[in-house]
Amino acid sequence: MRWLGYIELDQLHWLPDWAERPDPEFRALVDKVSAAESWVIDGNYSVARDILWPRATTIIWLNHSFELVLYRAVTRSIHRTLTKKPLFAGNVETFRHSFLSRDSIILWVLFTFHKKRRRYLNLLQFNEFNTINFIELKGQKQVNAFLKES
Questions:
Q1: What does the alpha-carbon distance between residue 103 and residue 145 come to, in Å, rounded to a whole number?
Q2: Which one-letter DSSP state was computed for residue 139?
Q3: In sequence order, which ranges of 14-139 are alpha helices (DSSP H)?
């Protein structure tokens, strides 16, 4: 499989000091990068869905369990805090930001996981974009099998 134009939406969304890019600017960037003939987008921001979904041929939903998503968010935050690995726009996760902040990714998972899962199930069930190939992968075994076949 040949993938061209890999785009991470978090890279477009985040500014230095964990500031969020204003929606109009973010949408303009998403519009620009997804206008290419071939691309792979990593992430899903509802504010840009109306731009991306009509242009997509395939959408892969990693529909992992709540426990796995939470576990990965915690372990990834610990790892990033310890390594100080720069992320989007040079931002670095800190212990305080990851575990003691209202903006914590862990709190975000706790408070949004179930709501977002219901929303995605509805979007897939009542999809107006019937030309899109939707692939739902539940669990790491399905992800591994998919990658092995691709």
A1: 34
A2: S
A3: 23-33, 49-52, 66-83, 95-99, 105-125
d(CA 125, CA 147): 25
Q: How many CB atoms lie within 10 A of CB 141?
A: 9
Assigned token pair, 108: 């975000």
Q: pTM for this structure? A: 0.86
- The answer to whether 139 touches 62, Cβ cutoff 8 Å, is no
Q: CA-to-CA distance for 8 and 40, rounded, in angstroms?
A: 8
pLDDT tens digits, 51-97? 999 999 999 999 999 999 999 999 999 999 999 989 999 999 999 98
Give 9-38 pLDDT, tens digit per residue: 999 999 999 999 999 999 999 999 999 888
Contacts of 128 (CB under 8 A, 6+ apart): none
